[in-house]
Amino acid sequence: MEHVFELIKRNTPSISDRFELETVESDNGLDVCEYLAHGEKILLRGNNNVSLAHAYWCYIRKYCAAYFSHCSTFSVIAKDDYAPLPKEHFRKTISQKKRVYLDYITYSNSMWTWQWDKWEKELDFMAMRGINLALNVVGNDAVLFNTLVNVGLSERSAGYFLSGPAFFAWQMTGKLDSYLPRNDISNYEKQLELARKIHIRMTQLGIDPIMSTFNGQISQKIIKLFGKVKHYKQEQWNTFPSTQKIDILDERFKILMREYMFFQEEHIGKAHYYMCNYFCNFNHKADKSKYISPLAPEFERILKFCVEDERPCVVFPSDGYNRHFASVLKKCDVLVLDLDGTMFEATNHFDSHDCVIGNSHNNSPHESLRGDLKGLSKNKYAVMKEKYPNVVGVGFFPESLEQNPIYHEMMFDVMTENGELPLDSWLNDYIRRRYKSDSPEIKEAYEILLNTCYSEENGKTDVGSTLCSRPVADLRHTAFFDRIEVTYDNKDLLKAIKLLAGSGIKSYDMFCTLVFTTVTLLDNYAYSIYGKIMKSYYERNAQQFDELVKKFLYIFFDVDELLSTFDKTNAKAVFDDLLAISENDEEEKSNCLNYLTSHTIWGPLTLECRRFDYGWIYLSEFFLEYYETRWEKFFEYLSNNFGKRDVEKRSPLQYYDRDSFAPNQFYQSMAQYEKNVILTFVPEKEVSGDTIETVERIIEKYEGSITDE
What we know:
alpha/beta; 4-stranded mixed sheet; 19 strands
């Protein structure tokens, strides 16, 4: 219990002495949390540390308006004299046995720059929200690096084999290697130290860590080092060079696996749950049922030998689940994580293995506002666990974190609620906690948002960005698997923004809300203008074309001004944070390159790139230098073709229903420009300007045009 007391002191020091803690029995194996008045104290009860932390959260949420978001920070109304005794005896039994959080992709998209101060908050937040199982994502690259060095590879070769932190998640799942590696290998020591602190705190709070295992991926240098090694090539992924995996039955796999596990245990810690990524991106030509069945007992023996656990649990991500392998495991437990909740039905319910039904929501680091809140509030997980006994819990595996805070807030609630959430009262509670207000303007604005950005229709697929799209004649996507069509009336969003701006609330969270809703408004408007531009181009209406292009490009400058007022979207503020975690020039270059590349070209950095714009960002200065200039170049390209042969609407080669990256000389020069910006971009402008005043000016400027649409 002492660790929960420390959590309380960290988060609400002024009222920490108001609480007493007490352990109780579980409810037929299910976690229980309670709070009630006990004399002049607030008594928190739970059957373990996570339950106690969740009881604390339930109390401060109701009585102190506690709120936490990755878009802002932890906030609470808790002055020295404000911790009222609860009026009720609150008791909650959580039917989801396992509440699982994080994915490798989350780390590479959102978390690789985090230091201990941010991780400490995150771990407290996990426990308070009832998370009892989480992937320990930090330090995996350091463990792999030291494993390779310890078996004889040079530090230089080992360092080159590992991809940079913004891309290492895809190496852990077997898709690539050696991409934008760290320039300074001394960073691995820092990662191990941080990973150890995270691991210790997780276990102190009662969160079971999911640790990694060696995924079998090797390099040519390792093959040469070992001599004859049974290995096979993986299928090439998105034009990245093919990766190679060592056969589990090869003796050298045992050496690498054992070295990996022993080093991880010594420098980070041990666990009961271990992720198996061996079958992610798996591509072996042999008869899979006959070939894979013998692998499982061997993997099982190695794992038990390494972790010295009576019955360790092998955790499979849904994209790495293999029924032949999992079904042969006898001396290990099996847990399958259905990362986005779509594989359960397609895999015969994971062959009755214990599974967690997940939600990934943001399938890429997009800044768009989206999500079906009404659908989420129905809590389909509660229905599924009643119907299928092997559904043992709920997971949240967002590919990125710092957007859509309202959707994320509801998802965390769903993980510990036993039934449907009452949407109206839930929304009122959310507004009260986030904005510390019961403003009727904010309530009305959110009712509009529920029917626009957070409607069922707008939540079906990821939403792209017109402004951040790579310019083409037929704009169908920003990135793959998204769409840019607006599914609601932009005038409704305009009304919501006017209500928010006029609410009188001037807080960090209000600034955050206004920045992203206003940029969305202008992005929607830009899509409408884009359609008219292309129509005037094909109709040879040069005057209209020029007028519309000017109108389109002006939007970028208004958006850039707005982005510069807020630290989350101000490039100088963001890059200052990157520099703060860099100990030398080489590390600084590597961090900046990883950050910008992962939000733009992605890779590989060749003319065959297919994953461009997988991530995109609203970032001041960069917004003009990168995104606006691309469009300016494109419109100049179109203008030069007036009266000549029309620019083709689609390039001959299509990937993910998008034009290829460099189908002609113009796009080859565009690619070179993009690369140059990524390599040379240095922001200069500090956070400046008043967010609300800027929003009001933008509304006044565009209201007539948007209303007339």
